[in-house]
Design brief:
With 191 residues, the chain is mostly beta strands. Helix content is 6%, strand content 34%. The strands form 2 sheets. Strands 1-2-3-4-5-8-6-7 form an 8-stranded mixed beta sheet, covered by helices on one side. Strand 6 and strand 7 form a beta hairpin. It starts with 22 loop residues before the first helix and ends in a 7-residue tail after the last strand. The N terminus is likely disordered.
């Protein structure tokens, strides 16, 4: 049995037993877990901590990533691995509410665009992913851009076939370019 009922847990705990027969499969699973980037916690409002414990090795290894928000707009992501010092990543996060075009998602009338700037990198800030709550891919920005983008089922990029992001929108005053995709905030036509 893999669940220890005597173990005290805070909040919701999801335990996933991983059945990876063979050393190659286990190392692949470990590599995927190690690839979880700390910025994943930036926009998942209700998720504050990710803790992964590998019980297949001795001594047991735990990786913890937790988010601390502040009133000033600075979000701290604290990362800790068994046997290592904590690493603190700071981000300045700014959010802007937008009216959502009703044609995109039925019943959704407001959304939010957020920008997260990594602090402490000076002029060598790394390229960051564009997010639709979860990371999609990098478009070359040195900050994270989060929005309720229309994405294909593969979740690999912004859906460039959506009329809000196509080159047909390029002539609109309130538009821009997202790595070859045009995006804009649609205005209602006056009657």
């Amino acid at each position: 049995e893999w669940w220890d009922a005597t173990c005290e847990q805070e909040g919701t705990t999801i335990m996933l037993p991983i059945d990876c027969p063979g050393a190659a499969s286990i190392s692949t699973c470990r590599a995927h877990i190690c690839d979880i980037h700390q910025s994943l916690l930036l926009f998942l409002h209700r998720l504050r901590i990710i803790r992964v414990t590998d019980l297949t090795v001795e001594p047991v290894v735990t990786r913890t990533i937790r988010r601390e928000d502040s009133e000033s707009g600075v979000t701290r992501i604290i990362e800790h691995r068994t046997g290592q010092q904590e690493t603190v990543h700071e981000w300045h996060v700014t959010r802007h509410p937008l009216k959502a075009p009703s044609v995109l998602r039925e019943g959704v009338d407001q959304t939010e665009v957020a920008l997260a700037f990594p602090l402490g990198f000076g002029q060598t800030a790394p390229q960051c992913d564009v997010f639709a709550f979860l990371p999609l891919r990098s478009y070359g920005f040195s900050f994270v851009l989060q929005a309720d983008w229309i994405v294909p089922s593969s979740r690999e990029a912004v859906d460039c076939t959506c009329l809000l992001y196509t080159s047909d929108a390029a002539d609109e005053e309130d538009s821009g370019d997202l790595g070859g995709c045009r995006f804009l905030h649609k205005k209602k036509k006056s009657q």
